[in-house]
Amino acid sequence: MNTRLLILTALILATALSSALAQTKPSTLPAPTTAPAERDKVTVDPNTEKILQGALKYLAGQQSPSGSWSTRGEHPVAMTGYTLMAFLACGQLPGEGEYGKNVTNGVNYLLGAVREDGYITSESVRGGRKPSNMYDHGVATIALAEAYGQTHDPNIKAKLELAVKLIINAQSKSGGWRYQPRPTDADISVTVLQVVALRASKNAGILVPDDTIKQAIKFIKDCYDERSGGFGYQPRGGPGFARTAAAIYSLQVCGLYDDNMVKTGSKYLIDAVAKRNHREYYTYGAFYAAPAQYMIGGDTWSKWYANMRDTLVPLAVSQGDIAYWPKSAENDQQAAGLTPIYTTAVYVCILAMPYHYVPLYQR
To answer: Which range marks the domain in which residue 127 is found?
Structure first.
């Protein structure tokens, strides 16, 4: 691991903490009640590391001249956000590391996609056959927040503040978000992205009203299914693997590590995998389930990561010094709509978590 990057990350985290403490209005967000004290014993083994290195090379080769990533021009804002997170998870920063130029170009693409009102949409740039939505906006905002948190580049900050303001203004009365950049109704899949984006931005020193987070927590809890311990797409909706993963991760990034809904949600995920009842939107759900179980820690995380590694690594296709996932794992029922860029980016994020490069994934 790159010692210089570890030191840089530590310094940035310290700066962000100092900035937060210096705010005149004290935060009333729930404080983490449990920060697992034990050192994470999960590591990236040599075979997995080789796959990750090959996957980064594959993703770098898929970048378009505009700096974006997409397949057939589909959702370049979201795909660029996911891919940037994969590079960041492996310690690649804008202008630093083997793929620093790729990261810089990707960040610049997203910055160019920010409208004056803060909406990050492919309609602002060339490319993108489908109009963007708040799903794309949330993923892109997370990537920009993590990039800003680790660089404090003022060019990123200005656009990030606009993106965060749009999220705040688009929150519905119920506390969640939907696909359009305005307050209408809400669902858990779009809401989780906005919550994580807000938390990542707050961690980086961007002002986020506590009330916005509190209302979001209320909506997420309203989606809880007490009978199963899982979460539904909307209040009183049936539970599912991906919805539950998204929900408990949202609660955790808001500081509710010991909340009973998080504990029962974690168990729901474990049981869903054991019963093979986790294939609907598997890749999307796995993206949130991994950091959620990581924050649970201990044997829960060790067993979860081992299962993910043993599932994903054998499915990677290696061609020379590149590697990628041509399709989703676990016969994902969403598989027909997924692309190698998306699956590869998400699986890199999951497998690279033991590197601890992304502050948002840290306890």
So the answer is: 3-18+42-361
As a whole number of Å, the end-to-end CA separation of the chain is: 19
pTM of the predicted protein model: 0.86
Residue 357 lies in a domain: yes
Q: Which of 23-37, 119-133, 323-337 has the weakest average pLDDT? A: 23-37
Three-state DSSP class for residue 125? coil
CA gap 253, 245 in Å, rounded: 12
Cα separation values, 236 from 142, 174, 179, 223, Å: 28, 14, 20, 6
Other Cβ atoms within 10 Å of 90 Cβ, number = 23
CA-angle at 240, arms to 235 and 246, nearest 5°: 75
- Residue 24 located in a structural domain: no
Going by pLDDT thresholds of 50, 70 and 90, the confidence category of residue 279 is: low
CATH number for 264: 1.50.10.20
**Token pair for residue 199?**
């938390």
- Please name the amino acid found at residue 127: G
Structural domains in the chain (count): 1
Whole-angstrom distance, CA of residue 354 vs CA of residue 333: 28
Average of per-residue pLDDT across 348-355: 97
Domain-located, residue 32: no
Lowest mean pLDDT among 150-154, 315-319, 337-341, 355-359: 337-341
31 is a domain residue: no
Amino acid at 177: W
Task: Convert the pLDDT of each residue in 182-202 to its tens digit.
Answer: 999 999 999 999 999 999 999
Where would I find the beta strands (DSSP E) of the chain?
Answer: 224-225, 230-231, 317-319, 322-324
Show Cβ contacts of residue 293 under 8 Å, excluding neighbours closer than 6 positions.
Answer: 266, 269, 300, 301, 304, 305
Q: Using CA atoms, how far apart are residues 57 and 55, in angstroms rounded to an integer?
A: 5
- The DSSP bridge pattern shows strands 322-324 and 317-319 to be antiparallel
